[in-house]
From TrEMBL, chain A:
It comes from the Bacteria. GO terms for molecular function: transmembrane transporter activity. It is found in: Cell membrane. Belongs to the binding-protein-dependent transport system permease family. LivHM subfamily. The chain crosses the membrane at residues 6-29, 36-55, 61-86, 98-118, 138-164, 195-216, 228-254, 266-284. CDD domains: TM_PBP1_LivH_like (cd06582). It is a multi-pass membrane protein. GO terms for biological process: amino acid transport. Keywords: Amino-acid transport, Cell membrane, Membrane, Transmembrane, Transmembrane helix, Transport. This is Branched-chain amino acid ABC transporter permease.
UniProtKB/TrEMBL annotation, chain B:
Transmembrane segments: none annotated. Keywords: ATP-binding, Nucleotide-binding, Transport. PROSITE patterns: ABC_TRANSPORTER_1, ABC_TRANSPORTER_2. SUPFAM superfamilies: P-loop containing nucleoside triphosphate hydrolases. One of its GO terms (molecular function) is ATP hydrolysis activity. Residues 2-235 form the ABC transporter domain. GO terms for cellular component: plasma membrane. This is ABC transporter ATP-binding protein. CDD domains: ABC_Mj1267_LivG_branched. InterPro entries: AAA+_ATPase, ABC_AA/LPS_Transport, ABC_transporter-like_ATP-bd, ABC_transporter-like_CS, BCA_ABC_TP_C, P-loop_NTPase.
Length: 294, 235
């Protein structure tokens, strides 16, 4: 029985971990390219969930069809927000601290606005897949989670292809590795930064839809939790390292879900933090990072 | 090709450049000498847009570069290397050399062909799939030079290309610089503390001292210039 539970936790962890890694990945590329700590990332994730909710309610759009729409919508918001706000932060003498403070303020503002407009009631996406569960012996996997896993794998694959096979993706990685060198080889860092923030928020929106699909409900208060998870993943995987975010997400997801099935839900985040602290102690740069955390 | 007119650059109260003027004709090498802090790197940084000059003008082929961001100056044909090479450490050499093409419309085949040609010229083709961070400092300098040249620049700014490089690699760098004006069709602004190499490679030499032009002329003139001797040797 314990072995089944462990396997159940492991499978849940891999599915959730991969979705979590999208949070880490988007936070990581934003930080890597812009040196901006997007503390409002969790609120954008929740906004993504609300966007799917209202697209379904008002236009009858299924969450699956809503995903590309939300990605484009959030990418455009991110692109515009870059020029309105983020650009100034990225140019400051200490972009990390400046962005941490401003984005923390934005996080509170977005949370308050969501509370004002959407109220505190938890909402759910209204959809059903048949069959609702798949059984493998004693292992139960909700179909929704499998579909979410498939979508996340496709998104991860497209992202990897973009980062490692396309010229803009390589330019984005180049900025992460050596920001001061890219302009001298003719790359427009400004344009790339706006694109990065757009992609980052696009990912946040889509992640929000995925999380709303697999968890029973969402509310305006959940944003901070996801931001926290994102930062734990970054610490685990390494700052500014896209692959690190993937591994960090999987590690955190598995640890969390195995703890949930073996112990208790409330202990799960604690164990995640313990894992993060252990990594800070023994490998301060994260599993894949080269740059030591300051 | 490049004309710098009465260029000044101040940082707070410190005047790093105090009215520097120089001219590099097409397909010529201009050596830039000076002690540490004389303003050599500041001048390069002003030319490729990393610093905004306080006053004066910089013209490339008759068009002012003032106010242009660095990437646009690079797109107009100004290449640059640094005293400490600025490569993309976790990219392969081929990927590093492909970086200048990220905004263009060159095909993959063309990018590979040009990158491979330059990796051959810097004798590092065999390491094309290695990460840049795996190379020695001297090899990194060669890769940076190749990455700059693969974009076919009109003017190259070389900041201390021989610093920290072993003699055999230095010889290769000398050969590459020698070939730049005729074979590659570009002008060169060469900053170096290696007097012998500067004398050997430069058609003309400018000596900077405390942000001003102290002397200008051919190698023989500079060698015998009493102001230069005094500035360098303190006698």
């Amino acid at each position: 029985m314990t072995a089944d539970l462990l396997l159940q936790g492991l499978i849940n962890g891999l599915i959730l971990g991969l979705i979590y890694s999208l949070i880490g990945l988007s936070l990581n590329i934003i930080f890597g390219v812009l040196r901006v700590v997007n503390f409002a990332h969790g609120e954008f994730i929740i906004l993504g969930a609300y966007a799917a909710y209202f697209l379904q309610r008002l236009l009858g759009l299924s969450p699956f069809l809503a995903m590309p729409v939300i990605f484009v919508m959030f990418a455009l918001i991110g692109w515009a927000l870059y020029f309105v706000l983020v650009k100034r932060l990225a140019r400051s003498d200490d972009p990390e601290t400046a962005s941490l403070l401003v984005m923390f303020g934005l996080s509170i503002t977005l949370g308050a606005l969501m509370l004002f407009f959407f109220e505190a009631d938890a909402r759910s996406l209204d959809y059903m897949l048949e069959p609702p569960f798949l059984m493998f012996g004693n292992i139960v996997i909700p179909t929704t989670r499998l579909v979410a896993l498939a979508i996340t794998l496709v998104i991860t694959g497209i992202t990897a292809w973009f980062l490692y096979r396309t010229f803009p993706g390589k330019a984005l990685r180049a900025v992460i590795m050596n920001r001061s060198a890219v302009a001298t080889v003719g790359i427009d860092v400004e344009k790339l930064s706006a694109m990065t923030f757009g992609i980052g928020l696009g990912f946040a929106g889509v992640t929000g839809v995925l999380l709303a699909m697999i968890f029973p409900a969402f509310s305006p208060f959940a944003g901070a939790d996801y931001t926290l998870i994102g930062f734990i993943i970054i610490v685990l995987g390494g700052l500014g390292h896209p692959i690190g975010a993937l591994v960090g997400g999987l590690l955190f997801g598995v640890t969390e879900q195995v703890t949930v099935v073996l112990a208790d839900n409330s202990v799960a985040l604690l164990v995640g933090f313990a894992l993060m602290i252990a990594v800070i102690f023994f490998r301060p740069s994260g599993l894949f990072g080269r740059q030591q955390l300051r | 090709m490049l004309r710098v007119t009465d260029l000044t650059k101040t940082f707070g109260g410190l005047k790093a450049l105090g009215g520097v003027s120089l001219h590099i004709p097409e397909k010529r090498v201009l050596g830039l000498l000076g002690m540490n802090g004389s303003g050599k790197t500041t001048l390069l940084n002003c030319i490729n847009g990393l610093y905004e000059p306080s006053s004066g003008d910089i013209q490339l082929q008759g068009t002012s570069l003032l106010g242009l961001p660095t990437h646009k100056i690079a797109a107009r044909g100004v290449g640059r290397t640094f005293q400490v090479p600025k490569l993309f450490p976790r990219m392969t050499l081929l990927e590093n050399l492909a970086a200048p093409f990220t905004t263009g419309d060159a095909s993959d085949a063309e990018v590979y062909e040009r990158s491979a040609e330059w990796l051959n010229r810097v004798e590092l083709y065999r390491l094309r799939h290695n990460y840049a961070e795996e190379l020695s400092g001297g090899q990194q300098k060669l890769v940076e030079l190749a990455r700059m040249m693969v974009a076919q620049p009109k003017l190259v700014l070389l900041d201390e290309p021989f610093a920290g490089v072993n003699p055999s690699l230095a010889l290769l760098i000398i050969r590459l610089i020698e070939a730049m004006p005729e074979r590659d069709g570009c002008s060169v602004l060469l900053v170096s503390h290696d007097l012998t190499s500067v004398y050997q490679l430069s058609h003309n030499i400018v000596v900077l001292h405390e942000g001003r032009v102290l002397a200008e002329g051919g190698a023989a003139e500079i060698r015998s210039n009493p102001d230069v001797i005094e500035a360098y040797l303190g006698a």
